[in-house]
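Predict structure. Chain length: 410.
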Amino acid sequence: MNNSPISHVIEFDIVAKAQAGAMRSLRLAAVDAAAATRLAEREGLRVLSCVPHRSSFARAGRGSVGTGRTRLDIALFAHELASLLDAGLGIIDAIETLAEKERLAETRRVFEKIVQSLKEGRNFSGVMSERPDVFPQLLVASISASEQTGDMAAALRRYSANFETLRTIRSKAVGAAVYPLMLLGVGSLVVLFLLAVVVPKFSTLIESTRGEIPFASQVLIGLGRTIHAHPQLVAAAFIGAFLSLILAVRHASRAGWNLPVLQRLPIVGPLIRIFRHAQFYRTSGMLIEGGIPAVRAFDMCGSLLTPEDSRKLARAVASIREGAAIGPALQLAGLADPVALRMLMVAQRTGKLAEILARIAAFQEATLSRAIDVATRLFEPILMLCIGLIIGAIVVLMYLPIFDLASSIQ
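Prediction complete.
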């Protein structure tokens, strides 16, 4: 139930078990997770997990507040709230303090509504679950488990540290892509300038020689004249391509870069998969450390994987419920490499599953970091070489008729 006037219907991905024992995955639209669970239970299903659609951890730290014009940094919120709780404040006093220091009116109203609900005797996780557009389901689950164990501050610190680790890796990946994109943009502008301005001016000089012009030079001159004759059309096409690129990046970002077209790319696809596996292991380890059972933690973290890996995880979780070991089940699903399998087998013997999952995530994050460095070192020189060859070809084709004329004079 959500009586907030700014609530809205969102989609939830649900994993449930039918009466016959078969596992089912479905998507339902509801105002909150509780309402989506009730809808699934009306169909005779036992809900195992219910997470907001497209709730990747990449977006989890930027929960929108209210109309979306303001943003709440969830990682900072978790860190500040943990610090206030460690200082001895109660949960109500701590959130009231955050509301008093908050400058954004929309965010302040969210905090004030939480305080009002807490004063009515409701638990913190239940209040947070009513705002899935603000508080990620993973944070809500961590808070819910900590309410039973009494270590809410520790759960908040784990969430904040976990998110900051993932944000560092994501920033590294984005930073590695900035320079090639800038190089591609500048190179495109230089090529466009040569074709639209320099080539038409040279064509007048070349044609005045009345010599035979090579075919390639004729094609270049024709292209340059066409661009020079229709500058508005060319500018509109260039701006349209630029805006399309921005929209594509925004769409990919909102989808958590979980797009099939990206995952099929030869270099980008494997890197995205490694990053998502690292997210899965680190986040599931955080949830297990907070007191959430392993099977439920894996279910909740399924949305962090690609759609194909998420389906494989559902089958692996079903096997684990039937008594299979975690390591072999994840390896059979293609979610555990030999290193992860060995470490999970150790966790099976020692019982330190949360710690082992964090170590697997750290291993995969180091692998991802090295792969990004190698890809950057390879891609940047190749891109510079391609741009240099294009510009060089344009210059050579412009001067080729002049070289031929000079040769004929000699």
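Summary: Residues 182 and 188 are 10 Å apart (CA to CA).
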